[in-house]
Amino acid sequence: MRAVLQRVKRGAVRVNGAVVGEIDHGFVILVGVGHGDGDAQAQWLARKIAGLRVFEDADGKFNRSLLDVGGGCLVVSQFTLYADSRKGRRPSFVDAAPPEIAEPLIERFAGMLRQAGVERVAMGVFGARMQVEIHNDGPVTIWLDTDQVG
After folding, report:
1. Reported pTM
2. pLDDT tier, 150 (very low <50, low <70, confident <90, very high otherwise)
3. Which among 26, 28, 52, 125 could bridge 11 via Cys, Cβ 3.0 to 4.6 Å?
4. What positions carry a catalytic annotation?
């Protein structure tokens, strides 16, 4: 699984002009599922995100986690994180898992964030054309890839 986290002051997702998910401070998480990804990768990612210390303490240092600051997560499926653009001008997405695998895993990932202690978890709509509103804070943007876990 791959995820791009953006620390935000606010995030929202709209489908057909209607808000379907929103959070105040926390992370907007763009998440993609690759072939072979399963619950182990989703669990690792959820725990990593919940405990990642990228929020400032009183001294302005990255010492606080999402759990420490009571932040939320807005989870948005993003198969394009598996784009392969090495050849030609049109990216290939063959490394992305098919929807029948990706959609339930992303749902379970959101549940795992809740189990890890994240109180507010909102979601986009899988497969929908979404407008994602991101009020990046910092900016702080982090890339996580479960294939690179040692």
Report:
1. 0.95
2. low
3. 28
4. 78-80
